Amino acid sequence: MFFAYLGGIVFLIISFLFWYKFIYSPYQFFKKFGLHSPPTVPFFGNIFDIFKLGSIYALEKWSIKYASINYAYRYYIGAQPYLAVLDPDILKEIMIKKFDNFTERKKDFGFMTEIRKKANINSMLLFMNKQDWKRTRAIITPTFSTKKLKMISPHIERSCDTLVEIFSDISRKNNSAELWRIFGQFSMEVILATAFGCQVNILKGEENSLTEAAIGIFTPNLYNLLSELCTQIPFSAKFFGLFFAKRLKLTQHHSTARNFIFQVINQRRLQSYNNTNVDFLQLLMEAKAEDDQICPGSKQLTDEEIISVSLFFLLAGYETTSNLLGFTAYLLAMNPDKQDKLTQEINNYYQCNKDSSLYDAAHSIEYLDRVINESQRIYAPGSMTFRECENTCTINGVTIPAGCTVMIPIQILHRLVEHWEQPEIFRPERFSPHEKESHHPMCFMPFGAGPRNCIGMKLALMEAKMCLTSLMRKYKFERAPDTQVPLKTRIGITQSPVNGIFLRVLSNVF
Ligand code: HEM
């Protein structure tokens, strides 16, 4: 009898502790500071709304209902507390002025961490902790200087030439074509060439072990869904990781890519006397932090670090850039007057600069810059980013507790009616010098902001500008019967078209 009572009491105590630790306590996080959030479900927080509506749309709904003061509102993903901030002045404090208190981004994506561990790949730059990030970023920043990017631009020009040939075939057929897939092949070809000096012809259908692995990493499948789920449900990443990570094709693709890069590094080290490679891998092998950079640890990257950094370039640069090109083509087709203006500007430039290189042309046409900015404002390819708060602080009346993840909804900021007149309209003139002054700089951040912004920004812009300049000299895009209007997009961390982008391509040259 005594033992039955004792057992009952122990059971009650354990149940109470379980309830307190996992069901009650995590959701008191904001309440302790007198702040509100939408109603939560134990273990899941607010993820059902996110699954039902999509993250950005759920945030839009909450922003109307819960953005109490200064356009900031709170929610939970699993048990992790989030604060979404829409106020540009607060964002300036977080991303720039108080950067030291908001240096880290977000805990790693659970399931992908397990996959990378199994594939022997180090932590990615995106999720690095403060110390590791400071050192790594200081070493690799010079790799993205204008001079070095110009050195690798011939790789991009080569793929632009192939793309022009492909578009010539499409224009002759006079049917619509799915351009998003073609821009995807283009950007994969460019990133493999610029990152690893790998001369592949993906646009012409050729493959090798690295391209197969790279394509495999980006092909959506059940496991991607699983990994999405694991980022939301607490403790599930370890659980699923234990059972699946070793057996997944995705892990094999990561291993193949890793081993490929490892072999290339070894070969280059052996042939160091006649090494003429001009690509990121080579630049990373030679990269060294400047002497005046305060960074603890070695000023050079180890081979394992080079592998994880260069692999991350592949992940970060592929989808975002192809989405940018696809969205821009769609917006130009839907706004023929803006497209004509761009073509005119490109032709004018070449009339005055007949022997200009593609690199120089792409960087001299101001209207192209405005078109690309406006395209990214309407469809931000990187639709959100994050910062972790290290120490509790209050900014413009909003308390941000330590341990809280600040969510920066880039796509929403780009369309706020308070800051953008008729935000749904494509008008590149918004970015002309005199109009540019009229909007808050923090309301336009396709590449993030502050010291932890996108390191690949100049590369992405160089690629997009060179690609559009070479295409628009010869072709124009036109709306076809199967063009989806309005375009449906899928918004996660990145934004992509749900059903591709179907357009006609017509020759400009008669
Ligand atoms: C149109 C193309 C691209 C877009 C829209 C884009 C957007 C972004 C955004 C929004 C962030 C987060 C910034 C922040 O938190 O403030 C980011 C981070 C990053 N991006 Fe990009 N990106 C693009 C292309 C690239 C390319 C081509 C590369 C590399 C070759 C790259 C490498 C990175 C890296 C390494 C980070 C993490 C930086 C850090 O934590 O220090 N991105 N990108």
Automatic annotation (TrEMBL):
<dbReference type="Pfam" id="PF00067">
    <property type="entry name" value="p450"/>
</dbReference>
<dbReference type="InterPro" id="IPR036396">
    <property type="entry name" value="Cyt_P450_sf"/>
</dbReference>
<dbReference type="InterPro" id="IPR050705">
    <property type="entry name" value="Cytochrome_P450_3A"/>
</dbReference>
<dbReference type="GO" id="GO:0016705">
    <property type="term" value="F:oxidoreductase activity, acting on paired donors, with incorporation or reduction of molecular oxygen"/>
</dbReference>
<dbReference type="InterPro" id="IPR001128">
    <property type="entry name" value="Cyt_P450"/>
</dbReference>
<feature type="binding site" description="axial binding residue">
    <location>
        <position position="454"/>
    </location>
    <ligand>
        <name>heme</name>
    </ligand>
</feature>
<keyword id="KW-0503">Monooxygenase</keyword>
<keyword id="KW-0256">Endoplasmic reticulum</keyword>
<keyword id="KW-0408">Iron</keyword>
<keyword id="KW-0560">Oxidoreductase</keyword>
<keyword id="KW-0812">Transmembrane</keyword>
<keyword id="KW-0472">Membrane</keyword>
<keyword id="KW-1133">Transmembrane helix</keyword>
<comment type="similarity">
    <text>Belongs to the cytochrome P450 family.</text>
</comment>
<keyword id="KW-0492">Microsome</keyword>
<comment type="function">
    <text>Cytochromes P450 are a group of heme-thiolate monooxygenases. They oxidize a variety of structurally unrelated compounds, including steroids, fatty acids, and xenobiotics.</text>
</comment>
<dbReference type="GO" id="GO:0005506">
    <property type="term" value="F:iron ion binding"/>
</dbReference>
<protein>
    <recommendedName>
        <fullName>Cytochrome P450</fullName>
    </recommendedName>
</protein>
<dbReference type="InterPro" id="IPR002401">
    <property type="entry name" value="Cyt_P450_E_grp-I"/>
</dbReference>
<dbReference type="GO" id="GO:0005789">
    <property type="term" value="C:endoplasmic reticulum membrane"/>
</dbReference>
<feature type="transmembrane region" description="Helical">
    <location>
        <begin position="6"/>
        <end position="24"/>
    </location>
</feature>
<dbReference type="InterPro" id="IPR017972">
    <property type="entry name" value="Cyt_P450_CS"/>
</dbReference>
<keyword id="KW-0349">Heme</keyword>
<dbReference type="GO" id="GO:0020037">
    <property type="term" value="F:heme binding"/>
</dbReference>
<dbReference type="GO" id="GO:0008395">
    <property type="term" value="F:steroid hydroxylase activity"/>
</dbReference>
<keyword id="KW-0479">Metal-binding</keyword>
